[in-house]
Amino acid sequence: MLTPSAISNILESPEVRQWGTVPLDGFIGPAHVSTIIGSRPYEFFAEEYRKPVVIAGFEPLDVMQAILMLVKQVNEGRAVVENEFSRAVTRDGNLKAQNLVAEVFELRRQFEWRGLNVVPYSGLRIRKGFAEFDAEKRFPVEYVSVADNKACECGAILRGVKKPQDCKLFGTVCTPENPVGSCMVSSEGACAAHYTYGRYKDFQ
Ligand code: SF4
Fold first, then answer.
1. pLDDT tens-digit readout, 27-69
2. Residue 52 in contact with residue 70, Cβ under 8 Å?
3. What CATH code is assigned to 1-145?
4. Is 174 in the pocket of ligand 1 (CB under 6 A)?
5. What is the model's pTM?
6. Ligand 1 contact, 170 CB (< 6 A)
7. Domain ranges of the chain
8. How far is the CA of 152 from the centre of ligand 1 (A)?
9. Is 169 touching ligand 1 by the criterion CB < 6 Å?
């Protein structure tokens, strides 16, 4: 998913924009995406929505430092883009990679994502000139939309308005061994991470 459109979708979601306010303090910018797109695309969110953004690397110390940088911005009333992962991310990103992506891929008008539903201009598809490498063109597999389980709160969790432990299925019906929703599928999903590292604190 294209990160700027994911952030826009979250910030413009009616669940998040309660009475015109956005109850999110800021964003941690993803390391891998930002090495390609750079830090510049996040400047819009810092300016337009007054939300601080700190791009973080992958190591635990990177994430902790990025959170500290975010907390400092919030405490000082600042909302700018800061780059904790300066050893790999520049403001303009990797221009060579950006040009190659633009050569091979084009924007889709819309795409359906688990948890977020249909988001306009949020994904890419392979251009006609490279159709021989496009599995969607080569194999006659029909697209079938599969609705999320009604009890799954992934959409609200992805938007930061609910926590994994607010879901009735968390840790009982839904576990990393038997994931019901997308947030439990991979180890970096919010529900899987809370199941592995955070749920013990819920009972303290
Ligand atoms: S615990 Fe499972 S069902 Fe509940 S929100 Fe998370 S992924 Fe969805």
1. 999 999 999 999 999 999 899 888 899 999 999 999 999 999 9
2. yes
3. 3.40.50
4. yes
5. 0.82
6. yes
7. 1-145, 154-203
8. 5
9. yes
